[in-house]
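Attaching the record inline, Q. Sequence:
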Amino acid sequence: MGEKLADLEPFHPDRLASRILGMGDIVTLVEKAQESVDLDQAQKMQEKLLRAEFNFEDFLDQMQQLKKMGPLESVIGMIRESANNLKE
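Structure, as predicted:
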């Protein structure tokens, strides 16, 4: 995915083909989310949202978790065309 060692990923030909064709890559996005999201923290966040107690500190925590998934451009790229395919 990049030039640095941290950017190396296992090779999945079908996922690479989807990226090249601009179709998104939801499977890789889900894998990255599972790596970066703490399940206990996610459960607590869900409870806060249900009670309407979500605040800016919680929003900051969410943005930091999103940052752990990599550049926002790559995350959006994994979603972009997959979302368009769902609309059709």
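The radius of gyration is 15 Å. The chain has a mean pLDDT of 76.

More tomorrow.
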